[in-house]
Structure formats: structure tokens, C-alpha cells
Amino acid sequence: MTSARLMLGNGLAKDLAADTARRSEDFHQRAGRRPCLATVLVGDDPASVTYVRMKQNRCRQAGIESRHVALPDTTSTEELVAALTALSEDPEVDGILLQHPVPAQIDERAAFEAIAAGKDVDGVTMHSFAAMAFGLPGYDSCTPGGIMRLLDHHGVDPAGRHAVVIGRSPILGKPVAMLLLARDATVTVCHSKTQDLPAIVRTADIVVAAVGRPEFVRGDWLKPGAVVVDAGYNEGNVGDVAFDEAMSRADLVTPVPGGVGPMTISVLLDQTVRAAFEHAGLG
Amino acid sequence: MTSARLMLGNGLAKDLAADTARRSEDFHQRAGRRPCLATVLVGDDPASVTYVRMKQNRCRQAGIESRHVALPDTTSTEELVAALTALSEDPEVDGILLQHPVPAQIDERAAFEAIAAGKDVDGVTMHSFAAMAFGLPGYDSCTPGGIMRLLDHHGVDPAGRHAVVIGRSPILGKPVAMLLLARDATVTVCHSKTQDLPAIVRTADIVVAAVGRPEFVRGDWLKPGAVVVDAGYNEGNVGDVAFDEAMSRADLVTPVPGGVGPMTISVLLDQTVRAAFEHAGLG
């Protein structure tokens, strides 16, 4: 039985981060300050605390200053919007990351929209989404942006190929569908209401699984030779695709962990440094 | 040979316009002024002049005031943006329509983005697009919004069905794909780079043709019993679908003219009156 090649993200993410660190230092030399990412955390959900800390550590390694804003889990939408508006107007802040999910009393969309488009380095605003959809300048949602870089790096040209995206969240399924479409793939978006999902996946040259259900996509759903991107990350370090089954059928497969995951923060840092250059008019 | 049923837009568009006229009069009584649509035309392209005149006439019939801004075909992006910004800030204007296409020297996207989201009753801004994609309050692109109303009126529930959209323009293909996805269809977007388009169209329960090529979609591309929405309008009153062939295979087919076409302006007027109520706080 043949075995697929692995589409690894670790090395690529590291290379991207090294390039970001070089550009960050260049910015420092030219602008007299470091690029700055503001991280905003509401409450103290342990997973969110860990994610924010990882991002801060990665900022430090790339020579990016991080400014942290911690808000209590009783924060109202108005208070969070006010904090994000202040950061949007602060000339020393280049990028803003609102760690999500936010507590249930908060209108998450209203909070996202308080992030200035020019500082939306996490790609969560409506403006960023439309920019991805229309092929306009802007910041990608980080995981979709990472997926596109992973495909490029492994020589996968989406043009004319059929890409099936499973999942339709505003920061993963929908934006990755738009990015693939902008790169001339024929794109199908599937979700929980899709009928006969396996039959649709079987027509895909490129599958992006973003459902958040462990080993949901089975090997016999895949067209032999397909490219499989697993954007899931479930309990027990398991992705959304049955990995061993996919390896015996596909051409290229992202492992979990070590595939899509490492790309996300690297794209965030890359976009932060890009925002810094743009704000300083050093583009 | 069986024949499909016609999905006619004329009657529905007329009913919608009558409802809009009633709400417009109600607004007039309560607000002491009529709803107002600003139409902006750059240059004097005969087709554009005709379209704008049709919209003004339809406004009048619905009791909507229309204010026309005519700009020379030498207008710069900056001048057009300034005119649209002034209308966006004018408290007596409820909706803004920029007739497109605009002359080549103008950055059309920059012009669209000068329209305030709350007055974008033609659904052309990035904000409106993302609102359609995310199921948030906002104004639909008029033709896609008209297509959804046409489907609803004819009892076509997109949920769980496979919709294939042919075309990916920012005001037709992409937004109608997003509206169908928001209504739980499984959605495939096809375009000029799509390979084996007939095979993909054959899997569709709902086909939306928005390519602008006369009789491009052939009858033998259709799954028997499909719902066929022809959003094309080409020279000689011909749509994007080979009509007779579609009628002998599909279940429901929009004719051209008299299908999708009449819906577009009715949705524009409907959204203008809705904007008036919202601006006046009478929602």
C-alpha cells in the first residue's frame, strides 16, 4: 500500500517566524521602536490563558513587543468595545488580537468590529473577511492564511481544482473557502446540514476539514491522490481526519499536531510586522 | 415530455413594490418626510442612464423621493468619494445607489466603500457582503436578495440541498453563494477556471447561473427536477441558460426576462424604506 506524503507545518512555520524576526529587527532599526501586538483576554479560561501566553512568547522571540490587556470575566460588551477602540486609536499599537471565545454576555461580533481594519492582524473583522473574498489588500484570518501558505509551500496550486471545505465558521471555514476561490479553485462549502457528505468529499482534489469532530472524515471518503488539510484539533491531539486511513489513500496529508497548527501563530506575527511597516509608512 | 414550472418574478416583484409603497406612506405619515434614495451616475453611458431612470420612476411610484447626482465622465476617484461621503453624512438621504460600472479611471471599490453601511441599500460594500456571509443584519445585494425571495416564494427551501452557483462577481455570484450557505444549502461556486463544469452542475439541486454568456448552461447539464435560477441578461433578451432545454428537464425555471430581473429594483426600494425607518428610529 502506498503512503501519502506529509504536509508538515513545523519547519515552514519556523522559517516564516525567522523571516518575521528579521523584518521585525529591520523595522526596529528604521522606526526606532519595535512592532507591537496588543493581546486582549477577557476572563481566565485556562486554555485561553495558555494560548495568549504562547502568542506573547512567540512575539518576544520575533522581537515584537506585546502589550497585554486583561479584563475580568464580568466585562460587558461596551467595556470590551471601549478597550478595543482605545487600542485601535493608540499609535503605538500595530496589531490587536482579541482572544476568543469571549464570555457569553459579550457580543463577540461587536467586539471584533471595534478592531480597526488596519490593526486586524488576526483577520476577524467583517472588513478582513470581505478583503479575503474580494482579493483586496488586508489581513487573512490566521489559520486560513496558514493553510494557503502550507499548500503553496508543498506545490499545491488550487487553480481549477475542486476544493471541499467542511465547516463554515466565520474565522475558518468561510474565509478558507474565499481564499481558495480567490486562487481559482472550484469551492464547495459543506456543513452539518449537508446531505451525503462522503459522496461530496469523494469529488474533492483538496479537502479542508474544519469541523472540530475527532476523526470525522474517514479514509474511504477521500479520492485517491487527494490533498488533505486537517484544521481540526480535538482532545487527545486528534484531528478531524482519520489520519492513518487518509495516509493510505491521499497524496498529501497534514498531521495533527504539526500540520496546520504551527502556521497560525506564525501568520499572526508576520501580519503584525506587516501592519507595523504600514502604520509607519515604511511599507 | 414533461415541462418545468416557471418561476416568475413579475407578480412577486409587483407585490413587494406594493408593500413597499404602503410602508413608504406609513413612514411619510410618521416621519413627516418621504424615504429618500440618492442615485449617483458618473458619465452618460446610455444603458446606465436608462437603468437610473427606471429606478427613479420606480421610486416615484413607491412614494420614495429620489435625489439624483450626475457627475461628468471625467470624475476622479477622489471627487466621487467626496460626493458619496457627503450623501453618507446627509441626514435627509436614507439610501445611496452608485450606478455601476463606473468609468475606468475610478477605483470602484474605493467609491463603494464611501457609502455608509447603513445607507448601502444596493448591498455593494464590504460590510454588506460580510453581513450576508455571517447572517448579520444588513442590506443584501439586490439581485441575490431577489433570488432568495423568489426561491422562498416558490417554496424552495435551500437547506441541505446542493446549490451550484456559476459566477463569482462581488455583487452576484459571491453574495448569492453566501446567502444560500446562510440558509443551510451546501454551496459550490464555479467560474471560468472550473474543470468539467457540466459534471458539477449535474449534481446540483439548485443552479444559479450568473456568468453573462447567452445560453451557456445547457439542458443536459441539469439534474432532472433541478431548480434553475437564471440571473443572466444578455443581448437579445437571452439568459445564461438554454431556456427550452431547461424547461424540458428541470422542475422550476426562471424565464428571461420576467424571472430574476424584476426582483432587483423591488428589493432596492424595499431596502430603501427599511433604511428610512431605521434612520428615523421608527424601526
UniProtKB/TrEMBL annotation, chains A, B:
<comment type="pathway">
    <text>One-carbon metabolism; tetrahydrofolate interconversion.</text>
</comment>
<keyword id="KW-0554">One-carbon metabolism</keyword>
<keyword id="KW-0378">Hydrolase</keyword>
<protein>
    <recommendedName>
        <fullName>Bifunctional protein FolD</fullName>
        <ecNumber>1.5.1.5</ecNumber>
        <ecNumber>3.5.4.9</ecNumber>
    </recommendedName>
</protein>
<dbReference type="GO" id="GO:0009086">
    <property type="term" value="P:methionine biosynthetic process"/>
</dbReference>
<keyword id="KW-0560">Oxidoreductase</keyword>
<dbReference type="InterPro" id="IPR000672">
    <property type="entry name" value="THF_DH/CycHdrlase"/>
</dbReference>
<feature type="binding site">
    <location>
        <begin position="167"/>
        <end position="169"/>
    </location>
    <ligand>
        <name>NADP(+)</name>
    </ligand>
</feature>
<dbReference type="GO" id="GO:0005829">
    <property type="term" value="C:cytosol"/>
</dbReference>
<dbReference type="GO" id="GO:0004488">
    <property type="term" value="F:methylenetetrahydrofolate dehydrogenase (NADP+) activity"/>
</dbReference>
<dbReference type="GO" id="GO:0000105">
    <property type="term" value="P:L-histidine biosynthetic process"/>
</dbReference>
<keyword id="KW-0511">Multifunctional enzyme</keyword>
<keyword id="KW-0028">Amino-acid biosynthesis</keyword>
<comment type="subunit">
    <text>Homodimer.</text>
</comment>
<dbReference type="InterPro" id="IPR020630">
    <property type="entry name" value="THF_DH/CycHdrlase_cat_dom"/>
</dbReference>
<dbReference type="Pfam" id="PF00763">
    <property type="entry name" value="THF_DHG_CYH"/>
</dbReference>
<keyword id="KW-0486">Methionine biosynthesis</keyword>
<feature type="domain" description="Tetrahydrofolate dehydrogenase/cyclohydrolase catalytic">
    <location>
        <begin position="9"/>
        <end position="122"/>
    </location>
</feature>
<dbReference type="InterPro" id="IPR020867">
    <property type="entry name" value="THF_DH/CycHdrlase_CS"/>
</dbReference>
<dbReference type="GO" id="GO:0006164">
    <property type="term" value="P:purine nucleotide biosynthetic process"/>
</dbReference>
<dbReference type="GO" id="GO:0035999">
    <property type="term" value="P:tetrahydrofolate interconversion"/>
</dbReference>
<comment type="function">
    <text>Catalyzes the oxidation of 5,10-methylenetetrahydrofolate to 5,10-methenyltetrahydrofolate and then the hydrolysis of 5,10-methenyltetrahydrofolate to 10-formyltetrahydrofolate.</text>
</comment>
<dbReference type="Pfam" id="PF02882">
    <property type="entry name" value="THF_DHG_CYH_C"/>
</dbReference>
<feature type="domain" description="Tetrahydrofolate dehydrogenase/cyclohydrolase NAD(P)-binding">
    <location>
        <begin position="141"/>
        <end position="277"/>
    </location>
</feature>
<dbReference type="InterPro" id="IPR046346">
    <property type="entry name" value="Aminoacid_DH-like_N_sf"/>
</dbReference>
<dbReference type="InterPro" id="IPR020631">
    <property type="entry name" value="THF_DH/CycHdrlase_NAD-bd_dom"/>
</dbReference>
<comment type="similarity">
    <text>Belongs to the tetrahydrofolate dehydrogenase/cyclohydrolase family.</text>
</comment>
<keyword id="KW-0658">Purine biosynthesis</keyword>
<dbReference type="GO" id="GO:0004477">
    <property type="term" value="F:methenyltetrahydrofolate cyclohydrolase activity"/>
</dbReference>
<keyword id="KW-0368">Histidine biosynthesis</keyword>
<dbReference type="InterPro" id="IPR036291">
    <property type="entry name" value="NAD(P)-bd_dom_sf"/>
</dbReference>
<keyword id="KW-0521">NADP</keyword>
